Write a sequence for this structure.
């Protein structure tokens, strides 16, 4: 099942090009070569979850976890949620999901790392970690993802190098240096990695990127081959709006639309086209 961009655009969320196409590419590649379960930690209104749901094959399970309207386990996490996700409800997520799919995934309302109590271990082909962006939570979520993943399964880490998410960056590279996690691709916002062999997934990313306007650059990081999918060469898109870096990514689409209604130029940023 294909979910067109126009349908995805009707769902509020922080999930943009090139990651939408990278998800499509890697979900298709894993469906063919490593059938298995899917999971998402942090769904918000379901923008990336509906794409995961579209990839489900026979016998495969999508499990998602989010606090939704429940309180966070600590003050910092609560502050993060109040600032960026106020008003979110489980009912709103489920209504969005049902607009696209006839059946809900397994929905867990709770702390992201608790997904290990609800999803099968060692069977997942693709796990998207996109819940709290605070260091201790991301460390726990990466450990949880490792338990869920099949040997060559893919871990996607959101916001691993944003200005406002140093905790994700630390947790991501800590996992690379201490647990054998191997990033095979990075986009402007997400790291794509595996604890197994990522060469097949990397080839799929390279094949997709060839012929697009996204920059494709090969590097070696910690002894492993990594492809960087970079923003299109300057001139093909308008520059970021100067206010963009002060606004949490998930809130930017709303701010952009308000600005446009007020007649201000907020630009076609590389995050939100
Ligand atoms: C960046 S949003 C997820 C974006 C989503 N993947 C999308 O496609 O739009 C982060 C989500 O994580 C949830 N969250 C924050 N802290 C959490 C925690 N400790 N455990 C579970 N969910 C959490 C928030 O409620 C929010 O829905």
């Amino acid at each position: 099942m294909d979910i067109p961009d126009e349908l995805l655009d009707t769902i509020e969320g922080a999930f943009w090009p090139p990651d939408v196409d990278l998800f499509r590419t890697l979900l298709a590649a894993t469906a063919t070569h490593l059938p298995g379960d899917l999971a998402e930690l942090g769904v918000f209104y379901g923008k990336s979850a509906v794409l995961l749901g579209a990839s489900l094959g026979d016998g495969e399970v999508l499990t998602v976890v989010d606090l939704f309207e429940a309180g966070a386990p600590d003050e910092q996490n609560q502050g993060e949620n109040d600032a960026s996700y106020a008003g979110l409800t489980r009912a709103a997520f489920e209504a969005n999901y049902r607009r696209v799919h006839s059946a809900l995934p397994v929905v867990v309302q709770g702390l992201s790392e608790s997904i290990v109590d609800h999803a099968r271990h060692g069977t997942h082909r693709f796990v998207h970690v996109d819940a709290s962006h605070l260091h201790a939570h991301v460390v726990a979520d990466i450990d949880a993802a490792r338990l869920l993943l099949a040997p060559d399964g893919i871990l996607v880490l959101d916001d691993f190098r944003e200005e406002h998410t140093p905790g994700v960056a630390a947790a991501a590279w800590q996992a690379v240096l201490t647990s054998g996690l191997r990033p095979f691709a990075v986009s402007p916002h997400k790291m794509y990695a595996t604890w197994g062999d990522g060469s097949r997934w990397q080839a799929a990313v390279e094949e997709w990127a060839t012929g697009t306007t996204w920059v494709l650059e090969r590097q070696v990081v910690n002894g492993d081959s990594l492809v960087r999918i970079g923003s299109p060469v300057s001139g093909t898109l308008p520059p970021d709006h100067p206010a963009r870096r002060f606004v949490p990514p998930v809130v930017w689409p709303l701010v952009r639309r308000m600005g446009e209604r007020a007649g201000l130029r907020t630009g076609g940023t590389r995050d939100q086209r």
The pocket of S-adenosylmethionine is lined by residues 13-15, 42-44, 47-48, 65-67, 72, 77, 81, 85, 88, 111-112, 130-132, 137, 250 (CB under 6 Å). Residues 5-197 form a domain with the Rossmann fold fold (CATH 3.40.50.150). The radius of gyration is 18 Å.
